[in-house]
């Protein structure tokens, strides 16, 4: 049935071209149905905000994701809550009991100094795959572009597998203006001299996703994707939506 010429997509156990979904409480029955059809186009699952702590049957949900080859982890807000209450050791034990192998180090709500985050990453990478996040959820807080780039570089050098650029599930902070417009100058600077395959751009809406696909090709890493949108996103990556219609295989911009 493969008769169209489409952009080449990474597949299998991807290291880039990732789709990272945000699970904000999807019921187990619904999740089973979604994964039965779409697990091959989902790579990472963030159990959003701090919801993992109050999610019923969390271990079963984690096991279900892993059964389908998807990497589950808890949202950075839960990490920050544990940091704020000096409960990081308890948090790590909690992750181990759940069988979660990925951990996010973020500072979207708390202003955790970079040196403390780096120290945590050096410690955590011995037992976990670490994802860090850069940027604030506060729409009034502006980080200089140079600070964005310096943080991402240092976080990757410290041992992070990926760095997420903050955008929230609303697409109104971090790499976005309050109105939802992408800060395109910031994005272009972020990938200068940095490996874009190591950056996961939070892109919660179709218009945000299409911006990054047009800029970097079908194999850009995208996060905070709604579970209900994964098939539409894959269609966009494959040039099967009007906005990406003319994107051909040779236009892929990532190695």
Automatic annotation (TrEMBL):
TM stretches of this protein: none
Pfam families given in the database record: ComA
Superkingdom of the organism of origin: Bacteria
Family the UniProt entry places it in: Belongs to the phosphosulfolactate synthase family.
Protein name (Swiss-Prot/TrEMBL): Phosphosulfolactate synthase
Organism: Neobacillus rhizophilus
């Amino acid at each position: 049935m493969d008769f169209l010429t489409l952009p080449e997509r990474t597949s299998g156990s991807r290291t880039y071209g990732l789709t990272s979904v945000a699970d904000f409480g999807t019921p187990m029955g619904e999740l089973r149905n979604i994964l039965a059809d779409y697990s091959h186009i989902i790579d990472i699952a963030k159990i959003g905000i701090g919801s993992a702590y109050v999610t019923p049957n969390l271990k079963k949900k984690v096991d279900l994701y892993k059964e389908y080859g998807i990497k589950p982890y808890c949202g950075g807000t839960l990490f920050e809550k544990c940091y704020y209450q000096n409960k990081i050791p308890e948090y790590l034990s909690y992750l181990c009991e759940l069988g979660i192998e990925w951990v996010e180090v973020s500072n979207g709500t708390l202003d955790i100094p970079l040196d403390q985050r780096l120290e945590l990453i050096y410690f955590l990478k011995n037992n976990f795959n670490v994802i860090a996040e850069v940027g604030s959820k506060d729409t009034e807080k502006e980080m200089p572009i140079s600070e964005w780039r310096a943080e991402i570089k240092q976080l990757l050098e410290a041992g992070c597998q990926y760095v997420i650029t903050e955008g929230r599930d609303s697409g109104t902070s971090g790499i976005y203006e309050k109105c939802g417009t992408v800060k395109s100058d910031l994005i272009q600077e972020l990938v200068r001299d940095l490996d874009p395959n190591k950056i996961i751009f939070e892109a919660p809406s179709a218009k945000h996703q299409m911006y990054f696909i047009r800029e970097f090709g079908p194999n850009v890493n995208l996060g905070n994707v709604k579970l209900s949108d994964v098939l539409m996103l894959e269609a966009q990556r494959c040039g099967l939506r009007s906005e990406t219609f003319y994107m051909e295989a040779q236009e892929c911009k990532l190695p």
